[in-house]
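Q: Convert this sequence to structure tokens.
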Amino acid sequence: MIVEPLLLDGAFRIKPERHEDERGYFARTYCRETFLENGLKDCSVQCSVSKNIKARTLRGMHFQKAPHAETKLVRCSRGAIFDVIVDIRPASAQFGKWFGEELSAENGVMFYIPHGFAHGFLTLTDDVEVDYQMAEAFVPGHAAGFRWDDVGVGIDWPKVPEVINDKDRTLPCLAELEL
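A:
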């Protein structure tokens, strides 16, 4: 596995090393030892999957409030997404800054997202599955988020979303939240 820091402190791009032959390839998508050696949290406490039927489906921007903030590893196991993280650590010099990149089953790239970041994505294809591995268990009463189109954050989505649930559509702006 190749671990590369992103432009936002504490976040990483993880690239599985593919071993290819005439059958296809084999790649390790998670190794606790590799994570710990790189100073990353063990993301094997809880695993979830998000199934998305249509292209241009938007989910986000979501996070868990302290003291139940989550660290997660996100990968797209079917189809393709534009994945976005936003630094929401109040004391961070990068507060409100975002980073986005295409994650797909084809490229195998994953994001390691530490606590103190919001996460969201836009599906780029139909029939998308996104896998999550968390270092902490999800606590429903601490789930929070802000608007995907918050002008104060200014995420440059590659396409206009067409499918958004009411909860995500009515989230407040980041500046309105008590973090």
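The longest strand covers residues 80-87.
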